[in-house]
């Protein structure tokens, strides 16, 4: 669980434009990155939300990551758990982009890290390309890691400030035996930089010499260097200026189509995932509450939490904006160390009913066409048989 790159606390973060700097735009004209080109298996957003057919690359079953809460100085004892990820089932199809959204603290990053075994899951399993990676150890685990890479939110803290771009890129290649000789490695590095829109001259520069967007391009090149199949991008654009965000997202899309990559894109911003996702999963307090194709999720959200999240996203059309229903969530996100009983959303749900909601935890169930919802009353809410009401803010108990 320690594959995470060194952090850069000793860097001031002053942004200097690289001399001869590349434009921040997404006009990437680079040559194809060798070795990883996949077939054009439906990686473009087709509108129906399904990409790559049903060819599943990743299956997550009942995944749990519970962090122990320790107390005591001499005799440390576990006094409870943070249920960061608490029973997640999902599949990611080959060539698709699966967007994962939810409020900060709901477990998105931990799910991404658990999937790659950068943090050890405490339950469930992850099957990657028919291999159960939950049980892999040593060399086989290391090999499987090459095929699954992560892009981090803050490129400045995920790139070692003491390493040049060249050594950042070579590090991973070397670890996986992909630096085949001086000449060909050099050509490969240039090709990698080109594919993310950076010039050869970037090789001998250091992370602080680049702008935020350029640094994220380096982070992407580092991930691509080991020729992965799956990229988990954890809030890949949230640290970037709005003007640069679209360029980096366009680059990710273009690389996906060119290389046949599969993405899990994590974001708290629904606008980001909508643009690039085929399917979207909404997370609340450690588990998925809804999953649907991107179009369907936006056209007909069924879970009250998704409805509330979407109602907070501004709509460009002023008439629609004025008329649409706004759902304000009252009450704080409860602590994942002490999640509410029954439906975890019941303390904030404007549709909460007298029965089931605070006693029975709803399962994520298919309500038709692969649209999955974890709400006892999803159909009744959709049909208007039950309506929303005021929510009395409930006292959320402290952690322990
Ligand atoms: N290493 C850890 N030890 C203890 N708790 C953790 C650890 N990492 C994350 N958490 C907790 O798990 C919960 C989910 O965190 P995280 O996965 O980072 O959420 P998100 O990415 O959705 O913001 C949070 O309450 C967070 O404080
Ligand atoms: S199960 Fe009940 S509390 Fe949970 S989302 Fe549905 S209506 Fe709301
Ligand atoms: Mg996170």
How would you describe this structure to a colleague?
- By secondary structure, the chain is α/β, with parallel strands linked by helices.
- The chain has a domain of 70 residues.
- The chain is built from twelve helices and twelve strands.
- The strands form two sheets. An eight-stranded mixed β-sheet has the order 6-7-8-3-9-10-12-11, sandwiched between helices. A four-stranded antiparallel β-sheet has the order 2-1-4-5.
- Strand 9 and strand 10 form a beta hairpin.
- Helix 6 runs parallel beside helix 7.
- It is globular, with a radius of gyration of 22 Å.
- The N terminus is likely disordered.
- Bound molecules: adenosine-5'-diphosphate (ADP), iron/sulfur cluster and magnesium ion.
Strand order of the largest sheet: 6-7-8-3-9-10-12-11
Q: Work out the strand percent.
A: 15-25%
The chain-level structural class is alpha/beta
* Shape verdict: globular
Instruction: Note the gap between the termini.
Output: 27 Å
Bound molecules: adenosine-5'-diphosphate, iron/sulfur cluster, magnesium ion
Which stretches are poorly predicted, pLDDT < 50 over at least 5 residues?
1-52
Mean pLDDT rating: 84
The main pleated sheet reads as: 8 strands, mixed
Q: Tell how many strands the DSSP assignment holds.
A: 12
Q: So how many helices?
A: 12
Cα radius of gyration in angstroms: 22 Å
Query: What is the chain-wise order of helices and strands?
Result: EEEHEEHEHHHHEHEHEEHHHEEH
| Percentage of residues assigned to helices | 25-40%
Biased composition (Polar residues): 1-12
GO biological process, one term: transmembrane transport
Region (Disordered): 1-50
Domain ABC transporter: 69-310
């Amino acid at each position: 669980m320690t594959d995470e790159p060194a952090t850069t606390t000793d860097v001031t973060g002053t942004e200097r434009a690289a001399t001869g700097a590349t434009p921040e735009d997404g006009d990437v004209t680079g040559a194809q990155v060798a070795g990883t080109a996949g077939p054009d298996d439906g990686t473009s957003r087709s509108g129906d939300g399904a990409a790559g057919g049903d060819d599943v690359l990743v299956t997550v079953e009942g995944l749990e990551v519970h962090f122990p809460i320790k107390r005591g100085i001499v005799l440390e004892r576990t006094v409870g758990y943070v249920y960061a990820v608490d029973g997640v089932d999902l599949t990611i199809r080959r060539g698709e982009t699966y967007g994962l959204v939810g409020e900060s603290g709901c477990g998105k990053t931990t799910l991404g890290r658990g999937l790659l075994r950068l943090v050890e899951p405490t339950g469930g399993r992850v099957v990657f390309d028919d291999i159960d990676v939950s049980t892999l150890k040593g060399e086989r685990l290391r090999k499987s890691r090459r095929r699954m890479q992560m892009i981090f939110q803050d490129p400045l803290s995920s790139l070692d400030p003491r390493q040049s771009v060249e050594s950042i890129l070579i590090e991973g290649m070397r670890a996986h035996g992909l630096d085949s000789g001086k000449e060909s490695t050099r050509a490969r590095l240039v090709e990698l930089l080109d594919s993310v829109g950076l010039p050869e001259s970037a090789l001998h520069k250091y992370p602080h010499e680049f702008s935020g967007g350029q640094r994220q391009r380096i982070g992407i090149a580092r991930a691509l260097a080991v020729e992965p199949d799956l990229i988990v991008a954890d809030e890949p654009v949230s640290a970037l200026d709005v003007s640069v965000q679209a360029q980096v997202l366009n680059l990710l899309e273009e690389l996906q189509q060119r290389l046949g990559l599969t993405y899990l894109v994590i974001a708290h911003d629904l606008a980001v995932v909508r643009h690039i996702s085929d399917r979207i999963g909404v997370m609340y307090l450690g588990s998925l509450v809804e999953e649907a194709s991107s179009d369907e999720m936006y056209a007909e959200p069924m879970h009250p939490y998704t409805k509330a999240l979407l109602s907070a996203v501004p709509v460009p059309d002023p008439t629609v904006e004025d008329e649409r229903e706004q759902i304000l969530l009252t009450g704080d996100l409860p602590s994942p160390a002490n999640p509410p009983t029954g439906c975890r959303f019941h303390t904030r749900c404007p549709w909460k009913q007298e029965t089931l909601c605070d006693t029975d935890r709803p399962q994520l169930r298919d309500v038709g066409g692969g649209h999955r919802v974890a709400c006892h009353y999803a159909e009744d809410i959709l049909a208007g048989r039950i309506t929303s009401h005021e929510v009395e803010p409930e006292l959320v108990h402290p952690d322990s």
